[in-house]
Amino acid sequence: MEKVGFIGLGIMGKPMAHHLLKAGYSLSVPEKNKAAVELVEAGARSFPTNREVAENSDIIITMLPDSPDVEEVVLGKDGVIEGLREGALFIDMSSIAPATAKKIYQSLQEKSVEALDAPVSGGQVGAEAASLSIMVGGSEAAFERALPLFKLMGKNIVLIGEAGAGQTTKVCNQMIVGMTIQAIAEAFTLAKKAGVNLEKMREVLLGGFAQSRILDLHGKRIIDQNFKPGFKIKLHRKDMNLALQAGKEYSVPLYGSSIVAANMDALIAQGNGELDHSALALLVEQLSNPGPL
Asked: Distance of alpha carbon 80 from its chain centroid, rounded?
């Protein structure tokens, strides 16, 4: 078995790393991450720097919040690029800008290191259940090498195309998710104000053309007003901004995405950025019940 390094042990990265450990992989993690202690107790090794994690790994996986984080971990001081040996494989499973994925790919190619951008969809629930959708950009050979690892973390695993294609696909995924949550939030707020029973409405809609996993899961969250984060608004807003950035790059007008991003900005300004992205319903409800002028 190849030795794996895992950097980025948040609400999704930690369970993903645990799946690899349980499968018998030798796992290395950075000491500074607060989840490292738990993983070390489960059998992982820890090292002081990202460079040392890379030096002790054949394959490095990152699962980080944003493009600058990935650039710093890979290309910064004591970064992954300083420790990777020729023939190693780098896999970024974060959601970052396609342009950043391509930049890192090119930098690693100069060291004879293959790289995949492999962002995921499925949230914390999917990470814990090892049922993530994994959308991959990079070479066929690198994909085949990574596939045994991907199968331990996800179920729907597709090589989309060349470097950056995985991140572009994830951006499109987040656009669809964001706008669908917005649609559900508006529909449920309208129905609630009209006196319609939301539980019964959700039940019947799930049997019709409007049915979706988002209506199922986030419709229930909205009804229960349960906004404990599975995926935080502040992180989804970051992804919507990546979508708008890509839209400008390719001259594609993204009107719906712009509205959702602005609504997420408003929620963050209210101090609600740590809530689940289904909390878009809170803003719609607030706007539907204005106070006195």
From this structure: 21
Tokens at 255, concatenated? 């009107």
Q: Which two tokens stand for residue 140?
A: 């066929």
Using DSSP bridges, classify how beta strands 27-30 and 132-137 pair: parallel, antiparallel or unpaired.
unpaired
Quote the domain boundaries for residue 235: 168-288
How many angstroms separate the CA atoms of 107 and 89, rounded?
Answer: 13
**Is residue 18 located within the same domain as residue 70?**
yes
At residue 292 the predicted structure's pLDDT band, cuts being 50, 70 and 90, is low
Ramachandran bin of 251, using left for φ above 0, alpha for ψ from -120 to 50, beta for the remaining angles: left
Q: Has residue 293 been placed in a domain?
A: no
Q: Are residues 68 and 179 in the same domain?
A: no
Strand-pairing partners, residue 290, are none
Catalytic (active-site) positions: 170
Q: Are 71 and 46 in contact (CB under 8 A)?
A: no
> Which run of H or E residues covers position 198?
helix 198-205
Percent of the chain exceeding pLDDT 70 equals 99
pLDDT tens, position by position, 178-210: 999 999 999 999 999 999 999 999 999 999 999
Whether 174 and 245 map to the same domain: the answer is yes
